[in-house]
Amino acid sequence: MFILIQFLLRLSFGLAVGMLVTPSRLVTSGFYRNHLYVLLGLNVLASLAAFTQPARYFWVLPVLAAILSYAGSVIWLYEKRQAGTIVLALIAIASISGAWWSMSMAVKPMPEMPKAPVTFTSDPDDPDLTETEDPSSAADAWLLRALDPLTSGLLLGLTLAAMFLGHWYLNTPTMVLAPLERLIGLMALAILARVLVCGAGLALESGHLTSAGLQPVIFVSLRWLSGLAGAALLTGMAWQTLKIPNTQSATGILYAAVIVTFLGELVSLLMSQGRLYPL
Predict the structure, then answer these.
(1) Percent of the chain having pLDDT more than 70?
(2) Which of 71, 109, 155, 230 has a 20 to 30 A CA-CA distance from 186?
(3) Is the domain of 91 the same as that of 219?
(4) Does residue 135 sit within a domain?
(5) Cis, bond preceding 54 (omega within 30 deg of 0)
(6) What is the mean pLDDT of residues 208-214?
């Protein structure tokens, strides 16, 4: 249940951010209204999942995001752009806060977690030697775990928002390409941020992965080849396709990008569960 809630809240956060950074003066209001229903569905499902374990998950936040999503769809129906933008920002805040909250409740000390490096507080030859744990290890773990939902959500949501926007060009082909180009550019930045966070986590967890056998290595390889390398390749292809320009072909490429990022982030959630660092 933890993986499902995390995935839904991360996706809700990233999609809200993707819609938020899409310039409303260049995109028709129907784009926001229709896809706020997607945010409504994501947060309703996250709320239902959180209700199954109310003592463990802070269900108020996904419920709040669901209410805001419905309210936002009504606001965009009347084309109140400023109010609609504020609602999208509130949905993003509620979703990422819920992801952080559920992660903090789920984190438990695990026997296989890497132990913090030991430092000597006196001469090693002294029989009264004492040891202390290096606080930098705990700080690194806290930082990476805080950045994990943030970067994951941005990658998931920006990719989905770009695909939705590319599909929207089929309804309104006269729109300028600048909004879609912006989202694809932000996708590239999100992939880079995700590589940095997961790369650091992988480096810190590498010793435990190799000692655990071949299976973790296979899953981590799938995660990186699909969710990061594959996503980067498809992002570049979509960017080049827009130069033709051909929004229909770019949208097809973005469909594939959604699939590989979803697969990669789900494997990342599965592999990171019970570990100190995100993979």
Answers:
(1) 85
(2) 71
(3) no
(4) no
(5) no
(6) 65
| Long-range Cβ contact pairs of 138-143 (< 8 A, separation 24 or more) | 140/200, 140/204, 140/277, 141/276, 141/277
Cα distance between residue 254 and residue 165, in whole Å: 10
**Dihedral Cα 247, 252, 254, 260, nearest 10 deg:** -170
Q: Of 153, 273, 108, 262, whose CA–CA distance to 201 is shortest? A: 273
- Measured distance CA(7)–CA(187) in Å, rounded: 18
Token pair for residue 52? 């199954």
CA distance 39 to 69: 6
Shared domain for 2 and 65, answered yes or no, is yes
Q: What is the DSSP letter of 120?
A: E
Residue 126 counted as domain residue: no
Q: pTM of the full predicted structure? A: 0.86
Block residue for tokens 């936040």: 61
Residue 130 has pLDDT above 70, yes or no: no
CB 126 within 8 Å of CB 100:
no
